Amino acid sequence: MGSAWRRAKIALGLNMCVYVPASADEEDSAERISDASLLPPAMSMTPTPSSAGLRLSKSVSRSSKKTCAICLTSMKRGNGHAIFTAECSHSFHFHCITSNVKHGSQICPVCRAKWKEIPFEGPNLDPTPRRARINPVDWHQHNDLMTIIRRLPPPRLDSNQTTTTLPQASEPGVFNDDESLDHQPVPAERSSPNGNAAADNNPVRTLEIKTYPEVSAVPRSKSYDNFTVLVHLKAAVANSGQNLQRNISNPPLSSHTPRAPVDLVTVLDISGSMAGTKLALLKRAMGFVIQNLGSSDRLSVIAFSSTARRLFPLRRMTDAGRQQALQAVNSLVANGGTNIAEGLRKGAKVMEDRKERNPVSSIILLSDGQDTYTVNGSIGNQPQPNYQLLLPLSMHGSQNTGFQIPVHSFGFGTDHDASSMHTISEISGGTFSFIETESVIQDAFAQCIGGLLSVVVQELQVGVECMHPSLRLGSLKAGSYPSRVMGDGRTGSIDVGDLYADEERDFLVSVNVPAELSGIKTSLMKVRCVYKDPLTKEMVKMESEEVRVERPETAGQEVISIEVDRQRNRLQAAEAMAQARAAAEQGDLGGAVSVLESCRKALSETVSAKSYDRLCVALDAELKEMQERMASRHVYEASGRAYILSGLSSHSWQRATARGDSTDGSSLVQAYQTPSMAEMLTRSQATLLGSPSAQRLIRPVWSFTSQTKPR
User: Fold this and answer.
1) Share above pLDDT 90 across residues of the chain, in percent, rounded to a whole number
2) CA 29 to chain centre
């Protein structure tokens, strides 16, 4: 034990942490060193049983009388920091004041005197990628661990303290230096010559359409003003699941079966608050993403703090591409402020300027803070910040063509701006996930890429047309998907976009049903779908059978469709969440809790609830947890807002998001998780089996009660 702790102290003393695969005879000690590597910097540690063996040095723990007015930490000479004394006699850390001057300030932060001479920072001293040595990774034998070598920032009191500036490698004016695509022929078994995915003799069913009227029979003499029909869509099942289950250490999922290759840009926050544990976990999560992309997939990484830079252009994830990507990610150092807008601007530029395009494109954004460069927080009765400014105009979704490049945003910890991250994802057509527990970041990324690597339908548009001459459409309830009813009220459409393998979408269409004096049946509507096959790039058209209801002379027992009732409950719960959030933002937490309680009571009286429908049970559990996260203003600010917004994002897009530690498959809130997502999540969790302590070491950054953590 003593030897293990001594090795851990040496690692920390050298300001270096290493993740290494353990040999059979050193498994125990290597695991403990791995534990030490996940600890945050010394000054931010809270004494816990796992950290009791480490003692802070006296020079670090004892506060100095002389402090830097910018970062509020000691300026005692001999601590390894250069000191700058201005002409007004006030002193600062050199790296702090150069960062201040870099952003246009030439005034003393203490006395406000205007300086005639300003400090100038020379060439950046950050470790270059070539200095960060990566051990060769054997993906087949050591799929459960990734070697990471990183430098820890110096101990400090304020996690937001600037340590260095981003190394500014020269970047081209136009990002058209993406690596050429690997053009491979589409395998014959995946092609569809006639494009008719609904043909019975076609073994691959790309999309399935089902319709459910709220009741199957309506008396002839009776008319409905808002008769509901459920339109249910389900994409084809992926073929890769069986392979993944058989051998969890196989090469990337993409190599097992033909699928649409992906262009992925990750926009990563490396501001000062990411230093220590957060950055280490982010590197590990990115290692998992890199490992699970195929050779036809391309990746580019944008790192941002006060400024943003592209680490490398879109590059195919071949063996050489993975090695370069790992080197670049592992060389990252946390420092500076949080400029989300600049990070997204460069991420969008990578997508816009590329010479070639893979069929699937997406951006992943992760941040643990609030943008302090583009939008300002609201004060008092001032209006809410315009978060739309964070997203380049080219990334805003079009009402006519749907969303092209979604931004899937991840709020890391309890200090991120959930409202801004949710707005970014909502505008672009992506999802917002709340990573409350630090160690869940890799699982959250895994769930996301599990979907992105299984796209089977693109540019999906759903059309609804009334059949009976007297029918008119009332409304299309489609969540966040753009929908419209034409002027004549006879037709309507919904822009759905991409579907992952085995993913489902449910839309409620209301129509008026007139009294029928003669016929025994009334034709209501027909559903048509048009989409692009991402592999064949062919446009596919298909349609449902006509939706009809029987018209008996006398009314029998009315049986409500449980499928329709289930989706009504989902929409009602989502509306209650939105209303509760609005009340909470106005400071009325009591009213917000009351809204959620009323919704729970209403749901309990429905047909699906009385049938113990799984979705209805999950909705009730979710609403209950939201009530608990509104116990006080402090709890709501810390986790309630982000939890509700990630829930709203999930329900409005009908797509799985991470909430707290809810990527766990046993969680009730994973109603939209596809098999491909679940399998990638299983792969992620399997990579941690070599170091079980990594799972128990990092605790939730916020616990809103002293009771057992919800789900």
Assistant:
1) 51
2) 35
